[in-house]
């Protein structure tokens, strides 16, 4: 109810600003120029875009996930705060490119990441229908590929910019979709078997290791490219550290799992 009230209030203010601007300029193009140059009008338009994005997020969440559990909401909020902190570091590094387009692109990145996080969590608990999951994966893949194409076409014409950082993030999201798909296939195979599948845990660990290697390679490549022309991108230090830690953890777990399996087999043979 509060969201509807905020949306209606912002829509009223936006229509009022549009009407006032059109009464002043009397033509379409001068009205658009006035709206984009006036700070108050621009702030209202941006707020209205944020409200519309919120409505779209709620609608897509209801369609693909239904009602979110409290644990999912808490996890989503926690990850969003960490992502926002990383974005603030990116803002500091690319402060010369701050603008409306910059804010829009990073808002969309956070929006898309949220659905990736929810999808990964639901797949691990196998609580989504096959058609719904495949439809969401296809939709997210199309969005990721579109933003990758957009991110890497602009640096080709303007030189290195913040679009490269966005492109790396969307590349990681695409590989994350492949990882999520493989995990869902493994969970599905396990659910169709009459007896528990002992090797499923091993395969899931292999998927985590491959994903960790890909993520780390992308971050390192991006760091080297940016460092060749700019100061060291400090905002990439935390993602690299987290990738290395996750990769080490997965390798350690799979090593322990193999050792325990060998010990168990030797004891069984005795």
UniProtKB/TrEMBL annotation:
| Residues spanning the membrane | 32-56, 101-119, 125-148, 160-185, 205-229
InterPro entries, per the entry = HRD1_E3_ubiq-ligases, TPR_SYVN1_N
User: Which compartments does it reside in?
Assistant: Membrane
- Give every E3 ubiquitin-protein ligase synoviolin-like TPR repeats domain span: 8-253
Q: Please verify whether the record's keywords include Membrane.
A: yes
Query: The organism sits in which domain of life?
Result: Eukaryota
A single GO cellular-component term from the record reads:
endomembrane system
Q: Which terms does the record give in the GO molecular function aspect?
A: ubiquitin protein ligase activity; zinc ion binding
The protein's predominant localisation is: membrane
Q: Could you give a single Gene Ontology term from the biological process aspect?
A: proteasome-mediated ubiquitin-dependent protein catabolic process
Which UniProt keywords are listed? Answer: Membrane, Metal-binding, Transferase, Transmembrane, Transmembrane helix, Zinc, Zinc-finger
Record pathway:
Protein modification; protein ubiquitination
> Pfam families of this UniProt entry?
TPR_SYVN1_N
The name under which this protein is listed is E3 ubiquitin-protein ligase synoviolin-like TPR repeats domain-containing protein
Write down the species.
Answer: Echinostoma caproni
């Amino acid at each position: 109810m509060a969201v509807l009230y905020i949306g209606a209030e912002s829509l009223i203010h936006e229509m009022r600003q549009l009407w006032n601007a059109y009464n002043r300029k009397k033509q379409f193009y001068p009205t658009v120029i006035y709206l984009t140059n006036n700070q108050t009008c621009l702030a209202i338009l941006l707020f209205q875009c944020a409200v519309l994005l919120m409505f779209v997020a709620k609608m897509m969440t209801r369609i693909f996930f239904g009602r979110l559990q409290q644990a999912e909401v808490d996890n989503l909020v926690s990850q969003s705060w960490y992502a926002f902190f990383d974005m603030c570091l990116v803002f500091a590094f690319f402060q010369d490119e701050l603008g409306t387009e910059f804010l829009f692109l990073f808002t969309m990145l956070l929006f898309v990441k949220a659905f990736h996080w929810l999808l990964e969590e639901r797949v691990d608990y196998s609580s989504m229908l096959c058609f719904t999951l495949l439809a969401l994966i296809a939709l997210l893949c199309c969005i990721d590929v579109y933003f990758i194409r957009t991110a890497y076409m602009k640096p080709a014409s303007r030189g290195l910019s913040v679009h490269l950082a966005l492109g790396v993030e969307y590349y990681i999201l695409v590989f994350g979709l492949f990882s999520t798909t493989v995990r869902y296939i493994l969970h599905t195979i396990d659910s169709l078997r009459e007896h528990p599948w002992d090797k499923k845990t091993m395969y899931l660990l292999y998927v985590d290791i491959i994903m960790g290697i890909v993520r780390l390679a992308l971050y390192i490549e991006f760091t080297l490219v940016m460092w060749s022309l700019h100061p060291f991108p400090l905002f990439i230090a935390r993602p690299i550290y987290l990738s290395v830690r996750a990769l080490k953890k997965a390798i350690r777990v799979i090593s322990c799992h193999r050792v325990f399996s060998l010990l168990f087999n030797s004891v069984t043979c005795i």
